[in-house]
Design brief:
Elements: H1 3-14, H2 23-36, E1 43-49, E2 55-63, E3 69-74, H3 81-84, H4 87-94, E4 98-99, H5 111-118, E5 123-130, E6 136-143, H6 151-185, H7 187-194, E7 203-215, H8 218-224, H9 227-247, E8 251-256, E9 259-265, H10 273-293, E10 295-298, E11 301-304, E12 307-323, E13 326-332, H11 334-349, E14 353-356, H12 357-362, E15 367-373, E16 382-387
Parallel strand pairs: 12-14
Antiparallel strand pairs: 1-2, 1-6, 2-3, 4-5, 5-6, 7-9, 7-12, 8-9, 10-11, 12-13, 14-16, 15-16
Helix pairs in contact: 1-2, 1-6, 6-7, 9-10
């Protein structure tokens, strides 16, 4: 390799790979610079483990003449035969390099290398990428050059790992922060927090459709079932709603025991309130069907479930609220309070879905007026609506 060009690549990484905006672009730029410097690279992969409840890691695969392929794998991969026989398992678990030259008998223990040889690969090396927190990630380097990588090539690969690790760790930490914020506070709130809206009192007024739901009979359920079983039930129950809410443009802000608070932002400049509320109603119907189909075996019995959801539309205060250095990014306001009060009425009326007069007026549908009800904290009684398609079921 050209030592001068190699040093420039190293400096470019140390400077933050500033010419590349996206990770995939950075990987492509990095590999092309190495090839231009004389490294006979045909295929490169970097595999970064993530701090995510469902995703074990992400991978970026570059191959000459092709776009960078981006993928992710879940934790189930750890139990697969493919991972058990992968050279990357050695890297992740032992932090060791794995080399596999053509015609190398030791490399036969890795089926992946056989696949690469079938495509003309002559040499392979997997190199650990240590982060400052002690976690081990991995890179793979493959060539089709006759004779494989030279000693100088291998030395260059090992030397470039440290600067590559630093810039990869910075990118990974940023993405981890985004994923954790998305997981724990929602994508809209997460984007605002990451953008610097972190001081107590930072709030915005937003018009939104409000969703507030809870599970029927949860207190009795918690009393008669083991805590572990209750957690399993809650997770399955919330899955029934979160998928529908997010699929229709909503954001889950908070889980409160068996309760769920979500908002569906309305763009006041576009005037899409009717469209947004129609999607909210569709999400409520999907959730109702999913919860009705939910069955959880407990011993010889099967638990079935019902829930109630109140829908309202109005202005909310959305932002940082809390005490000292412990804040919550949430929403408050009379509209949220009214939704919470309406949700309690669902059980009394034996309804799954109830809507405020404001929501029913915006979302034109076959609503059935259920009457006026006094609402604690509100001076006027509130008119409540239910879906004409629903048959009231009063639980004992």
């Amino acid at each position: 390799m050209n030592s001068f060009q190699f040093q420039r690549i190293s400096n470019w990484l140390i400077d933050g790979a500033w010419s590349s905006v996206e990770p995939a672009e950075m990987i492509a730029d990095f590999c092309e610079r190495l090839v231009a410097a004389g490294l006979p690279l045909w295929r490169f992969g970097i595999f970064i483990r993530t701090l995510h409840p469902e995703i074990f890691g992400r991978n970026f695969i570059w191959k000459q003449g092709e776009d960078v392929e981006i993928g992710s794998v879940d934790f189930e991969i750890l139990e697969t035969p493919e991972f058990a026989r992968s050279p990357l398992r050695v890297v992740f678990e032992q932090g060791l390099e794995v080399r596999g030259r053509a015609n190398d008998p030791d490399g036969k223990r890795f089926p992946f290398l056989d696949d690469m040889r079938a495509e003309g690969a002559t040499d392979y090396i997997a190199v650990p990428v240590p982060f400052l927190d002690g976690s081990i990630h991995a890179t793979s380097w493959i060539t089709q050059h006759p004779g494989g990588f030279s000693d100088d090539d291998i030395a260059a690969i090992r030397a470039i790992i440290a600067p590559l690790a630093r810039v990869s760790e910075i990118i990974s930490l940023r993405r981890t922060a985004e994923m954790l914020l998305d997981t724990y506070v929602g994508n809209r709130a997460g984007a605002r927090i990451l953008g610097g809206q972190i001081r107590r009192g930072h709030t915005d007024t937003m018009q939104a459709a409000i969703w507030l739901s809870d599970l029927r009979g949860f207190t009795a359920l918690s009393d008669r079932l083991p805590a572990e079983t209750v957690v399993e039930i809650l997770n399955g129950y919330f899955d029934c709603q979160v998928t529908a809410i997010r699929g229709h443009g909503g954001e889950v802000l908070k889980f409160m025991g068996d309760g769920l608070l979500a908002v569906f932002p309305i763009d006041e400049y576009v005037g899409d309130a009717a469209h947004v509320c129609a999607r909210v109603l569709e999400a409520a119907r999907e959730s109702r069907a999913s919860v009705e189909a939910l069955a959880h075996p407990v011993g010889d019995a099967v638990e079935r479930f019902r829930f109630g959801v109140a829908l309202h539309v109005g202005n909310i205060l959305y932002g940082n609220i809390g005490g000292g250095n412990r804040l919550d990014f949430t929403c408050i306001g009379p509209a949220v309070n009214l939704a919470a009060r309406l949700e309690k009425i669902t059980a009394r009326l034996g309804r799954t879905v109830v809507a405020s007069e404001g929501f029913a007026n915006v979302c034109r549908h076959d609503w059935h007026e259920l009457g006026e009800f006094p609402i604690a904290g509100f001076s006027k009684a509130q008119r409540v609506y239910g879906l004409a398609e629903e048959t009231p079921v009063v639980m004992a």
